[in-house]
Amino acid sequence: MSKVRLTGLLVSAALLASACVSGGGYKPVSSELPGLKLSFSDPAWTGGPLPDGQQCAVFGGKGATPPLRVEGIPPGANAIIVEFNDLNFAPLSSGGGHGKIGFWHDGTSVAALPAVPGDTAKLPEGSFVEARAQSTGMYASPGYLPPCSGGRGHVYVADVKAVYKAKKEGEESRLLAQQRITIGTY
């Protein structure tokens, strides 16, 4: 085996090992995952036009994630990961393009996820930045990037995932259930 190929394999193995503890890549527990029941905890959020001010700072807002109620969380979940995406802007349309926010979970079947401010890595206790928004330049955010299309009618969604997030070396992070909710248009 060539030295270059061996080095590549070692780097790949190290990245995979770190992903298990760092939260990258959650392995689905089955080919057909159960769905979660999702609803907004604030009546201003309807899945239609965004509530006033919930856009990004670039367009004059101070947006935050919508507070959500998550039901049907399976046993074994220790975190809820929410991936935010803009379905109409390909570079940020999947995989948490607008950021991935995590919430530690106590093992019950229901969770109340608080609103998390956008454009910051300072989050409420019990929540964490799983992955920062993939946006760059003046749109860069260290955490969640609120809707930022400038009012062009883009559809924003949240992919909510109940997971077991590995806590120590050698453990595997697992995806236990998931569901999508449309958070609104802007």
In short:
The chain is mainly beta.
What are the segments in which pLDDT stays under 50 over at least 5 consecutive residues? 1-23
Mean pLDDT: 89
Shape: globular
Structural class: mainly beta
Largest sheet: 6 strands, mixed
For the largest sheet, list the strands in their spatial order. 1-9-8-4-5-7
Instruction: Output the CATH class name.
Output: Alpha Beta
Give the count of structural domains: 1
At the fourth level of CATH, the homologous superfamily is: PEBP-like
Reading the helices and strands in chain order gives: HEEEEEEEEE
The CATH level-2 architecture is identified as Alpha-Beta Complex
What percentage of residues falls in helices of 4 or more residues?
10-25%
What is the terminal-to-terminal distance?
53 Å
CATH topology: Phosphatidylethanolamine-binding Protein
Written overview of the protein:
The strands form two sheets. The chain has a six-stranded mixed sheet with strand order 1-9-8-4-5-7, with no helix packed on it. Residues 1-23 have low confidence and may be disordered. The longest helix is centred in the N-terminal third of the chain and has 20 residues, at 3-22. It is built from one helix and nine strands. The protein is mainly β. The protein has a single domain, classed as Phosphatidylethanolamine-binding Protein, CATH 3.90.280.10.
